[in-house]
Amino acid sequence: MGIVSQEAINQFRALMDQVDEPLQNTFQNIHQGYHTETLVRFLKAREWNLPKSHKMLVDCLHWRVQNEIDKILSHNERTHDAFVIACLVITFLSVQKPIVPANFYRGVRDSQLIGMSGYSREGLPVFAIGVGLSTFDKASVHYYVQSHIQINEYRDRVILPSASKKHGRPITTCVKVLDMTGLKLSALSQIKLLTIISTIDDLNYPEKTNTYYIVNAPYIFSACWKVVKPLLQERTRKKIQVLQGSGRDELLKIMDFESLPHFCRREGSGSSRHSDANNCFSLDHPFHQQLYNYIKQQSMISEPVEPIKQGSFHVDLPEPAAEGKDIAKTIESELHRIENGNGLSESLNGLKVTDT
Questions:
Q1: Longest Cα pair distance anywhere in the chain, in angstroms?
Q2: Domains contained in the chain, CATH given
Q3: Mean pLDDT value across residues 4-24
Q4: How many angstroms separate the CA atoms of 142 and 127, rounded?
Q5: Is the dihedral of CA 127, 132, 133, 136 positive or negative?
């Protein structure tokens, strides 16, 4: 690290020492003891511009306090086990969050496909995301946003610190494998939600992903990627790798077979919401079971409070940045062009990406 970079970190640290106690408290949940690495993430996100990085981090801390993000991994209502599972992932962003039916929770999980399949050989958690088969049609936008934030927090407060301790060095990022199986023109209806989620990550969880691997990509993705790629910052472009087919051979260079997401284990396997015991999207997978057990444990050590009615709490949804809006508009335009100009059907999954 250069002298200029170290000086920026030192100045950043001094600025953060001046923030008030509520912001200091939530900052501890962000850095988890890795103070320097956290400051570097925010500096990278703003091209090492200290004033912009400082504003970004302070804004993030205010967002966390205002939305009670620190309480997302616990709820204080002691209740029967049949209801406890409903508190996983989607229902609580503070101790006052409502209890919802377990079948509602399952519906959200089945329509927002995400899980953790293992670790890379460098110790980075491997997260799998079923982009193409996620329908986001079982609940309102707010529940999907809450679900996404909760998994982010579990990753940052539980999984990454545990990996760091195991390997004896800071592990502060993850690998994401994005499965495009089933991606259709109907994805146009999901752009708004995905833009919101992406904006939340950009503003509050910067530089948490080491590499994005795109697999099982149909033509529709290839077409959109060609027009979107030039709009991305160079730092972001370098993180994205579009792999041929299921990406199995390339991914085996960085992880063991046991850590491969189920949709990468054989060519043409694709995503699955159920059936496979190795399916990390399933509620029965160890990742989701461990998440359940952790939240249940946290709930038992909290003070009980009165629940409020379902749906009465929402996370503040951010306004996408200009770059995000431009990318969303570009994708919409390209999807409309494919739909109206080329006369392609929605079933494009069998087509391959021509360049990676």
A1: 59
A2: 3-66 (1.10.8), 109-284 (3.40.525.10)
A3: 95
A4: 22
A5: positive
Q: Report how far residue 96's alpha carbon sits from residue 108's, in angstroms, rounded to the nearest whole number.
A: 20
3-state SS assignment for residue 267 = coil
Sequence-separated (6 or more) residues with CB below 8 Å from residue 55: none
* pLDDT, tens digit (0-9, with 9 covering 90-100), for 147-189: 899 899 999 999 999 999 999 999 999 999 999 999 887 776 7
Residues 6 or more apart whose Cβ sits within 8 Å of residue 163: 119, 123, 124, 125, 171
**Sole residue written with tokens 């209740």:** 79
* Sign for the pseudo-dihedral over CA of 201, 37, 26, 304: positive
For 173-190, letters b (16+ CB in 10 Å) and e give bbbbbbbbbbbbbebeeb
Q: Among candidates 293, 288, 267, which has minimal Cα distance to 278?
A: 288
Distance of CA 270 to the CA centre of its chain: 20
Is there a contact between 271 and 132 (Cβ–Cβ < 8 Å)?
yes
Q: How far apart are CA 177 and CA 190, in angstroms?
A: 19
